[in-house]
Amino acid sequence: MRSLITPLLLISSLASFSCHANKYPDRPIRLIVASAAGGGNDFVARAISQKVSQELGQPLVIENKGGAAGLVASNFVAKSNPDGYTLLLVFANFATFPSLGRKLSFDPGKDLIPVSNIATTPLVLMAPTALPVKSVGELIQFAKKERKTLDYASPGVGSMGHLAAALFEKMAHIKMNHIPYKGGGPAIMALLTGEVQLFFSTLPAAMPQLTAGRLQALGITSSKRSAFAPNIPTISESGLPGYEVDGWVGLFTPAGTPEAIVNSIYKAFSDAVKDKNVQTQFSKEGVSPLGNTPAEFSRQLRKDVEKWKPFIQTLDANPN
Fold first, then answer.
1. Who has greater pLDDT, 3 or 268?
2. What is the CATH number of the domain that holds 140?
3. What are the Cα distances from residue 190, in Å, to 70, 123, 215?
4. E-strand spans in 166-292?
5. Are residues 82 and 220 both part of a single domain?
6. What is the reported pTM?
7. Stronger pLDDT, 81 or 202, i.e. the higher one
């Protein structure tokens, strides 16, 4: 009798799990955004939330968890139940986590599953209009001539804003002082109030301030000018040849999430970024939709980890 009960219990359990997975989702889903409100991640999350909700048939509830360049949110999701009801939206600096030289309470490569690269966006180097420079070349000359140690904001140690500035500092042979904040929104406020002189921002977060004339754009980090903001020169053409940094917004779920649920999540988000209304919102803010597959995103992530690792190891300021 005992030999019969155990297999029957196992079959019953598997049948129950299969039935639950087939019903996914049957309640609201939390999308943990790894930045404070007002940043590029936040914009992408809110631009796609309604369409994703329609695709899944359940509300997509956005929760902002800024701090430590995305580590706070990533750690939270990594330790959440792998049932598809807690997702992570994080910027490209996720690829730097394994190389930061700090002890993490989770393993970025094992505890989170890459679902899709939702969108891509370059960064833009912004400065107050009061700063007496109008280009990257003038900025570099100003820093050298005046022997100024410029303060720059970032969304946290190890963020793309931090690494973009550190790479700029190294290539331009100038001195800059890093002041981390809890997200792109707070960093822009620091720029507006004069606490810092520079910030590498995502385009969605930057454009309202640039359009209103409250801040100025000195250059964009991509290899080519953005079709959305063609008047902003690349940093490479504006005074620092060879400079290039690209950004992306990626979707992750806790490791152990059933493959069928991961595929359902991928399909919903991938379909959402193909929606014309979503793409219109993206284009207005200089964001390009992507929505690649989990396998494609995994390969891309591995390449980015290897790309940034040597540079992080050369940083004068240890990001511990």
1. 268
2. 3.40.190.10
3. 19, 17, 12
4. 176-180, 198-202, 215-220, 246-254, 288-289
5. no
6. 0.80
7. 81
